[in-house]
Specification:
With about 400 residues, this protein is α+β, with helices and mostly antiparallel strands. It has helices spanning about 1-15, 30-35, 175-200, 205-215, 225-250, 365, and strands at about 40-45, 50, 55-65, 80-85, 90-95, 100, 105, 115-120, 125-135, 140-145, 145-150, 160-165, 170, 265, 275-285, 290-300, 310-315, 315-320, 335-340, 340-345, 355-360, 380-390, 395-400, 405. The strands form six sheets. The protein has a five-stranded antiparallel β-sheet with strand order 1-3-8-5-6, with no helix packed on it. The two termini are about 35 Å apart. About 25% of the residues are buried. It binds copper (II) ion (CU). Copper (II) ion binds near residues 23, 24, 26 and 131.
Length: about 400
């Protein structure tokens, strides 16, 4: 009996220890959702080591999936290009999509390519996993690939000054702190006075509740004329404070603008030269014993060059054929399965169509919990395929559809 108990406890402990501590639950979402929301690519950080006050640029491209799940609000509603870092460790100095400033929200259309860059200024020393994030209204954050960035120096040296439209230079780290502290304390004091006054009354709380229940219709009688006077005085004090505060703020800051919340419309960029390959999925299956994702594809190469499939990306995991393209992981957590992609059927000649068989095989299917897809009521996958020509030109195309699990 004791033996089983020990075994049981060990089992529970083993289950409680994660194999890898990840910064912000990159694997937590359902596999189907991660595969079919946003395809991020060419994600890069300009530096991985910097000091407080230095800037780092996070850039890349993304394509919202045309296989976006029906039950989730799409990015063509309201979406915002965000950055995923733990806490206010950086400040965003600039953010652009297709060249447009992205201070506000926008709409991203499924299947279109967007190029972005986000400039961050380091604020707090530490080591952070920095991700581009697409915050989609009614859906939540869709997280892109992450990179480790190390910030040195001291937060005391951090400079965050801006020049306002009225020509004043202010320090955003401390601006308005006096006001915030003063008004918070003042309202806290008002509340405390009110609270303490009622604590001095007898009876209070449960005994008072009982008393009110006993008195029935006459319960109002326990409120004394002094209570009424105190209440009226406090009401008057509160209203005058609000009034005073309003006029004081008007006088102190005569020129203000409200926070801007409108939607920005983005210009389209021409990526037709990178999208000259069409692919139809003839068959898709996942062989569980071999951790092998097998695709049969009909490829139509409209470009003027012979192309080879070199990279298949699923939910930020890149399965790469190193004989076609050499992609090295940027750091220990970069999700690259080098050698994880095998293609049967050779290059697709310029202007021709061909059927190829693709195998994406790596333990990352398991460690990144992508195989849970086969237990979804809607076993649909989404993936981005990257074809390369000998001169380095690249075409990309999204594929998606139903995936058949093979159990033996
Ligand atoms: Cu992370």
């Amino acid at each position: 009996m004791k033996k089983y108990l020990v075994a049981f406890i060990l089992l529970i402990q083993a289950a409680a220890i994660p194999d890898l501590a990840f910064a912000h639950g990159e694997r937590a979402q359902q596999a189907g959702l991660r595969m079919r929301t946003v395809h991020w690519f060419d994600t890069a950080v300009s530096t991985t080591k910097l000091n407080v006050n230095d800037t780092v640029v996070v850039s890349g491209s993304f394509v919202p999936s045309v296989n976006w799940p029906e039950h989730m609000a799409g990015p063509d509603g309201t979406a915002f290009l965000n950055i995923g870092v733990p806490g206010p460790t950086f400040v965003r100095v600039d953010s652009r999509v297709n060249g447009m400033p992205m201070i506000r929200s926008t709409r991203f259309y499924k299947g279109q390519t967007y190029q972005y860059s986000i400039t961050l200024k380091a604020r707090t020393p530490g080591r952070y996993h920095v991700h581009p994030v697409l915050s989609v209204k009614d859906t939540g954050p869709v997280i892109g690939p992450g990179f480790w960035v190390e910030v040195g120096g001291s937060q005391a040296d951090f400079q965050n000054t801006v020049k306002t439209m009225t020509g004043e230079t202010i320090d955003l780290e401390t601006y308005g702190m006096g006001n915030i502290a003063f008004w918070s304390l003042l309202w806290f004091a008002v509340g405390l006075v009110w609270f303490i006054y009622w604590l001095t009354k007898c009876p209070i709380i449960i005994p008072r509740y009982r008393r009110v229940a006993e008195l029935g219709d006459k319960a109002d009688d326990i409120i004394t004329p002094t209570d009424k006077k105190v209440a009226a005085t406090l009401l008057a004090v509160t209203l005058s404070l609000i009034g005073f505060g309003y006029f004081w703020a008007q006088d102190e800051y005569p020129i203000t603008t409200p926070l801007q919340t409108g939607i920005v419309h983005l210009p389209e960029i021409d990526v037709s030269a990178d999208r000259e390959v069409d692919v139809t999925v003839a068959d898709a299956r996942y062989r569980i014993p071999g951790r092998s994702f097998e695709l049969t594809l009909d490829v139509n190469n409209r470009s003027g060059k012979d192309v080879k499939l070199g990279n298949l990306t699923v939910a930020n995991v890149r399965f790469v054929d190193p004989s076609v393209i050499d992609i090295k992981p940027a750091d220990s957590h970069d999700l690259v399965a080098s050698g994880g992609l095998r293609v049967e059927g050779g290059p697709i000649k310029a202007g021709e169509s061909a059927r190829i068989k693709v195998f994406a095989e790596d333990a990352l299917w398991e460690t990144y919990r992508l195989t849970s897809l086969i237990y979804d009521p809607d076993s649909r996958f989404g993936a981005m395929l990257y074809f390369y020509a000998d001169d380095g030109a690249r075409d990309y195309v999204e594929v998606g559809g139903s995936m058949l699990p093979v159990f033996m």
